[in-house]
């Protein structure tokens, strides 16, 4: 079976002006990219300049999608979100990158039901969902496989569920 190695850093994320140059139209092997975005209420916190954590995460994801889409004509994106539960938002390719970007940009900073954010952050469910996707990837198809987990690092529970990553799950990755 497939295995996954995950390093857990309990740091608050910093949004810096990091960049990576990818030559547009260059010949790159096929890519499979899994994107997981935190839609918990803490993503509404202001980071300065009139932007919330969600704004910064959305801009970063759009830049990332565009960069990979420009680098290769054979990219498959799987987009998922999480708060108190995981929602699979679908699979996208170069042919429908605009649809994926519109979806990413469409989340709002208000709390449900009028907005996109919910007051819980369940890391446990998010990581298990990612692990299931990675385990289902075809290891022999020659594609580059990448996973991006975007969160503000603040697990919260309102319903008594396990929301942090427990020792058994972490051990299963090693």
Q: Which strand order do you get reading across the main beta sheet? A: 5-4-1-6
Give the overall form. Answer: globular
Distance between the termini: 14 Å
Number of strands: 6
SSE arrangement, N to C: EEEHEEHHEH
Helix content: 25-40%
Q: Sheet with the most strands?
A: 4 strands, mixed
Mean pLDDT: 81
Strand portion: 15-25%
Q: Could you list the spans in which at least 5 consecutive residues all have pLDDT below 50?
A: none
> Which secondary-structure class do the elements indicate?
alpha/beta
Give structural notes.
The structure is a single chain. The chain has 174 residues and is α/β, with parallel strands linked by helices. Helix content is 28%, strand content 21%. A hairpin with a 2-residue loop joins strand 2 and strand 3 (51-52). The longest helix is centred in the middle third of the chain and has 19 residues, at 53-71.
Search tags:
single chain; 6 strands; alpha/beta; globular; 28% helix
Strand-helix topology:
Elements (H helix, E strand, L loop, with lengths): L30 E8 L7 E3 L2 E2 H19 L3 E8 L3 E8 L3 H9 L17 H14 L7 E7 L16 H7 L1
Parallel strand pairs: 1-4, 1-6
Antiparallel strand pairs: 2-3, 4-5
